[in-house]
Amino acid sequence: DGTNSILFNLWANANKIIYDADNVITNSAPIADKNYAAGLIAYSSVFKAMAIGNMSQYWEKIPSSIGANVSFVTRIEGFNKAIAVIDNALAVISANPMSATFLAQIPAGIDITNTLYALKARYALFAGNYPLALTAANQVDLTKRSAFNFDAITLNPIFEISTSTNNVFQPTDANLGLTGVNIPDAADKRVGFYTTTAATAPSVRINGFGAAVSTAFPIYLPGEITLIKAEVYARQAAPDLTSSLTELNKVVTKTAATDPFGVGAALPALTGTYTQQQLLDLIYKNRCIELYM
Questions:
Q1: How many separate helices (H) and strands (E) can be counted in the chain?
Q2: Are 190 and 131 in contact (CB under 8 A)?
Q3: Which one is predicted more confidently, 167 or 223?
C-alpha cells in the first residue's frame, strides 16, 4: 500500500538494509584478516536477517532479492532466506572467530552469536520448522543480554517519537490491549514494567523499553526464547505437553531479578492438565504480555 507511510517506510528501510548488508558481506570476503572479516559478515547478517524476517512478518510475499523487476517469494520462503543468512554467518564465525579488534569497534550491547541463534529460533518457528526452532533456541544463552543501546545523541526512538510527548501512539489501556481470557492477571508484574499511570490524560503511558532517552531496546528477550520452546513442544508432530507446560511456567514464574532485562511476571506456576489448544492459548497470552511492544 503505497499510501501508508508507516508500511512504506518499513518496506523501503528493510530493503535498503538488505542492500547495504549485502555490500558489506560481499566485500568482506577478500579481507586478509579473516577474523575481522568474520565479524563484519556476522554483524551485517544480524541486520540482513532481521530485515528479511520483518518483511516476512508483515507481508505475505517479499522480494526474492534486491534490484529492479525482481520476483517475489512467499513469507515462509522469506523466513527460510533469513535462516540461510544466519547459517552462513554462524559457519563463518565457527571457522574464524570474530576478532577482538572488530568487536571493540561496533556499538556495545549486541551479543552477535546469541542474537543469530535467537533470530534463527524465531524464524524457524514462524516457518513451521519446529525441530530447527528448538535446536536453535537451546543454543541461546538466556543469561545474556543483546540490545540496541541509546544515549543523549542516539535517542531511543520510541521515547523520542511517543513517550516524550504522549503523541503518535500510547498503550490503549492497562490490559496491554488484551481482552477476555487474555487480560493479564491482576498480580502480573509485567504490566507495571511495560506501562505507567499518570494523573492527566493519557492515564496509561509507555514504560519498559520506551521509558527514557537512553533505555536500551532488546533485539530479543530471553522470555521469547523460552516461549518458543514451549510452543515447539506443543506444536511438534508428537506434542510433548508436559515439557511445553514446564517451559511456559519458566516465563510465568520468572521474577524481574532473574531476568537480564528485568521482565518478570512473578506469578504462581500453572498446575493441572491442559489440552494442546489450552497450552497454545496460554503461550499466546504470555507472548502478548512478555513481548509487549
A1: 11, 6
A2: no
A3: 223
